[in-house]
Amino acid sequence: MGEESGSKTAPIVIGLSACRGAFVAIGLLTALINVLMLTGSLFMLQVYDRVLPSRSVPTLLALGAMAIALFAFQGFLDACRGRILVRIGGFLNERLSGHIYDALARLPLRSQATADGLQPVRDLDQIQGFLSGLGPTALFDLPWMPLYLGICFLFHWWIGITALAGAIILVSLTLLTEALTRAPARAIAEANARRMGLAEATRRNAEVLQAMGMRGQLAAAWAAANTGYRGASHRAADVGGSLGAASRVLRMMLQSTVLAVGAYLVINQEASAGVIIASSILVSRALAPVELAIANWKGFVAARQSRRRLMELLKLMEQNTPARTALPPPRNDLAVEGLNIAPPGQPRLVVQDVSFKLESGQALGIIGPSASGKSSLARGLVGVWSPVRGKVRLDSAALEQWREESLGPHIGYLPQDIELFDGTVADNISRFVADPDPDAVIAAARTAGLHELIVRLPQGYETRVGEGGVAISAGQRQRIALARALYGEPFLIVLDEPNSNLDSEGDEALTRAILAARQRGAIVIVIAHRPSALLGVDLLLAMANGRAQAFGPKEEVLQKVLDRSKSHLRSVKLTADGEGTP
């Protein structure tokens, strides 16, 4: 558990550390591969220095067979190295995917929403893609450059000097690539986040865009975001492409220079003819990792930035809290003590100093004008938003003392913005538990007055609702969400505008559900603008400007609110009359 939540070491570091043995194996394979890379140059050296002068065909055949065997073994090792890298990428994805999903679910509750909420998933894919590609092989091959350069020095001092000078130039190009691609890669990530965020918003609001003729306006915003992404991509591609072309040209120039130096040495009888070809092959091999690294540097920078973002995200999601003792199911009361709530990532309080207490079997209606803090209070009551000050207690235990997985089944929550998941009706009602109790699913549906409606669907409880519930009506979505809130007979049920999409039949079913929950001892809290949603409650809390204005029996609070409204209207009328007097 320490690794998954409270560890001081980032999960991504732990995941990479777990691959240490695989990286060691890749290092050993790289050593063997780079030694076998000498096969071509040594073969040419022997052909020119032994086979051609002796004109021995058996020697040529023997050398050829040996070279073929070594090349085949080299190819096998190279394939093994590639497959191990793919497995490392997959292992890291498997190790981090749970943390990433947890972050996706909790990040909107901890901080302000970002332009692209799926960026962590893209970052994980970016790291896996880089580890599974050619980039790491270049990084593993780079340390073997001195071996090839050293052999070039063994051939001749001037050949070694020429190869070393070319290596220094290409390494300098690699460092220049690092410096010049860092900013464009960051700009690509930021621009892509804006672009994908707008694309997702467009997809989710296609009906609004179509009905209100907003597609042209949003298309302009999309075009601007896409232009920014395209410009950043062009800048990064221009830098990487230019430096990659420069490295290829320099490598070809260096090979030709080495050939020229070798020819000069042969003319002066300071080297054999085989040295010309062998040294050219060795220099090409020595500098190939540099060229490959430059070609893949954009991916390397992007993967490094993805790693940094994931580490920051997972650090933000860390909860350095001790293991909580399992508490018994709540059965008695809900106490709200001086509750102050601010939206995630914002300092402004939207709920201030709200206090009340409810006993088992009671139902509270929360009323008030728009932006009075009703929905924010609901989020605080179910633990979606953490309080800035104050406590929410179930049977005297503050919400933060409960384990999340043990508290969830005791809470039913129907948010104002209803979202269903792509699955069956039964899946959504049962909260996607692995092996739901069919009787409990049907019981929740009956309590919500939904059973008869469900069995009339094409596949009954096995009807798929589609992503977001697009396959069913808004009223059906709301009633399925109500059944989900009632599933498992939770102790605390919080319903935010539960009848906004219901007809009179749905209102009656809602009232029956509230009364049934109260009868079994649950506490129900209903936030409503329409009076029909309050028929099943016995207490009212009136809110305005984030503060509680009145709390008590429903009739008393309604009378106070009505008297206050009449007084306000009277003062407005007197003011208007005064302004109209000459």
Salient structural properties:
582 residues; alpha/beta; ABC transporter transmembrane region fold; Rossmann fold; 2 domains; 21 helices; 10% strand
Describe the overall structure.
This protein has a six-stranded mixed beta sheet with strand order 6-7-8-3-9-10, sandwiched between helices. Strands 2-1-4-5 form a four-stranded antiparallel beta sheet, with helices on one face. The longest helix is centred in the first third of the chain and has 54 residues, at 57-110. The protein starts with a helix and ends with a helix. It has 582 residues and is α/β, with parallel strands linked by helices. The chain has two domains: 2-103 and 116-204 and 233-317, ABC transporter type 1, transmembrane domain (ABC transporter transmembrane region fold, Up-down Bundle); 333-579, 3-Layer(aba) Sandwich (Rossmann fold). Helices cover 64% and strands 10% of the residues.
How many helices does DSSP assign? 21
Shape: elongated
Mean pLDDT: 81
Strand element count: 10
Rg to the nearest angstrom?
35 Å
| CATH architecture name of the largest domain | Up-down Bundle
Produce a short descriptive summary.
With 582 residues, this protein is of the alpha/beta class.
Topology summary:
Elements: H1 2-6, H2 11-18, H3 20-36, H4 38-54, H5 57-110, H6 119-131, H7 135-141, H8 145-155, H9 157-204, H10 206-211, H11 215-267, H12 273-295, H13 297-317, E1 333-341, E2 351-359, E3 363-367, H14 374-381, E4 389-394, E5 397-398, H15 404-407, E6 411-414, H16 425-429, H17 438-447, H18 451-455, H19 474-486, E7 492-496, H20 504-519, E8 523-527, E9 539-544, E10 547-553, H21 554-580
Parallel strand pairs: 3-8, 3-9, 6-7, 7-8
Antiparallel strand pairs: 1-2, 1-4, 4-5, 9-10
Helix pairs in contact: 2-5, 3-5, 4-5, 4-12, 5-6, 5-13, 6-13, 7-12, 8-9, 8-12, 9-11, 9-12, 9-13, 11-12, 17-19, 19-20
